[in-house]
Write a structure and sequence with these properties.
Blueprint: H1 7-10, H2 12-38, H3 42-62, H4 65-80, E1 93-96, H5 100-104, H6 106-109, H7 112-118, E2 122-125, H8 128-140, H9 150-166
Parallel strand pairs: 1-2
Helix pairs in contact: 2-3, 2-7, 2-9, 3-4
Length: about 170
């Protein structure tokens, strides 16, 4: 998996930024699904969503977590003002779970999120972050053939700590 490499191979800053991107994209995908299923004007709402998502991506690219937090807060406020048909708690939700490809691969999903949204369902895909945390769990519990030196084990534990913090 992506996070099986140590800090030396990829650099801790790179791993940190990728983690921010994974967690943020998981959340934004859920928001997009709710907009598709529940916005009064889905087309105009998706324009707002895309504009805010591009601002968040720009903040991710800068690599400054405080800037990312500030942008996410501002975007959340703008997205919260999108007129919805129902309160989000009232929208029927379908969970899309399965292999990692089902989670974000357009070919595998074949626009199921959009088709279900047309029928009033928000589709929540299993987060990519969940898969990454699961692979770390397998390594942590010794369920995979992975032998780490003391230094690698320390790097692994530190990586898990910062992942939890940023999540």
């Amino acid at each position: 998996g992506l996070f099986e490499f140590g800090a030396e191979e990829m650099g801790s800053e790179f791993v940190r930024r990728v983690w921010w991107g994974v967690v943020t994209s998981d959340i934004m995908e859920d928001i997009r699904s709710m907009i598709l299923a529940n916005a009064v004007d889905p087309e105009a709402s998706l324009e707002i969503y895309n504009r805010e998502w591009n601002l968040i991506i720009a903040a991710l690219e800068r690599g400054d977590f405080s800037l990312l937090e500030k942008q996410c807060a501002g975007s959340a406020a703008k997205l919260a003002r999108i007129p919805m048909k129902l309160r989000p708690k009232e929208v029927p939700i379908i969970s899309l779970i399965g292999e990692i490809f089902v989670r974000r691969d357009a070919l595998s999903r074949q626009y199921i999120t959009e088709r279900l949204a047309e029928k009033g369902f928000a589709t929540i895909c299993s987060p990519i972050a969940e898969w990454i945390l699961y692979t770390d769990y397998l390594v942590d519990k010794g369920f995979v053939d992975s032998r780490m030196s003391k230094r690698e084990r320390l790097e692994f534990l530190l990586k898990k700590k910062f992942m939890h913090r940023y999540e």
